[in-house]
Amino acid sequence: MANLPTKASFLxxxxxxxxxxxxxxxxxxxxxxxxxxxxxxxxxxxxxxxxELLRSLKLNKARIYDTNPQILTAFANSNVDLIVxxxxxxxxxxxxxxxxxxxxxxxxxxxxxxTKITEIAVGNEVYTGEGTALLTQLVPxxxxxxxxxxxxxxxxxxxxxxxNNLAVLEESYPPSAGRFRPEVxxxxxxxxxxxxxxxxxxxxxxxxxxxxxDSPDKIRIDYxxxxxxxxxxxxxxxxHYDNMLYAQVDAVIFAMARLGFGxxxxxxxETGWPSRGDVNEVGATFHNAAVYNRNxxxxxQRNEGTPLRPxxxxxxxxxxxxxxxxxxxxxxxxxxxxxxxxxxxAYNVGLSQLLTR
Length: 357
Description:
GO terms for molecular function: glucan endo-1,3-beta-D-glucosidase activity. This protein has about 350 residues and is α/β, with parallel strands linked by helices. It has 12 helices and 13 strands. The protein has helices at about 10-20, 45-55, 70-75, 90-95, 95-105, 135-150, 190-200, 210-215, 220-225, 245-260, 285-300, 350-355; strands at about 35, 60-65, 80-85, 115-120, 160, 165, 170, 180, 200-205, 230-235, 240, 265-270, 315-320. The strands form 3 sheets. It has a 9-stranded parallel β-sheet with strand order 5-4-3-2-1-13-12-9-6. It has a two-stranded antiparallel sheet with strand order 7-8. Strands 10-11 form a two-stranded antiparallel sheet. About 45% of the residues are buried.
């Protein structure tokens, strides 16, 4: 695409494009918008450069997939709300309260509150539909970490939750039919009880792209891209949905309500669209990625809620900040980034056009 900056330096790009836009206050109005900052690459910029990029974008919420001390140090005094992550292979260890206390004392306390850690994600997609081995370790680890935070006087400032794969739902269509899979039936009530007691959100990784990739002949592309379209009406509630992402979120809310937990906030910990893919990865294009993320930004600017909770803004973390060249799997996995590692745009999200509308 000829209009993409391919050789511009990192700083030139920041100063020449997004600092110009910052004066319009577009992105800073989207207070519920965050970004996932993955690090599975061998050519990514240093954390301080990443912070400069976030500042230029007026993004003040980010999520990382570990407790990298370099990032925690670089983000000190930045006023960026940061979610850190306990790796899945640490869940068994941190189920032990003494180990959890030591972890919080060494991984969290030295950086807080100078670095604005707001949440600890305990594991990531512990249930993926392919196995249940980690499920029994999840809630004990969350309880132990929360207890450690409470002992150190940090529990009111730092929430504890976990990002869930959409596979935790057995049914998501229509949204009012939302229910959890039998495989998670044993853990889900105690998990939701913990969230309700600690007033922590239920995080969901929601990717309409995957549904479209699986059934491109059955799903309208505009419905998954959040473009104008006829949408669908839930026959049980009469609620109208003009996009799949909001339908997926409301399906989670209905699933929780079925178990007696109707008041827990749902947030989107990951959503995005790949700009490239293998031949069989239908829909993975620069155009679709730009449209999807542009529409997410537009709706976040309006502080939209879902049809079920229209007056409650939906917090969304876009995946991801950078293309990560060391991620395994199909080509799409390495091409979810809004930016290349050198700081240039992977594709044009279209912010300049939005400002004129």
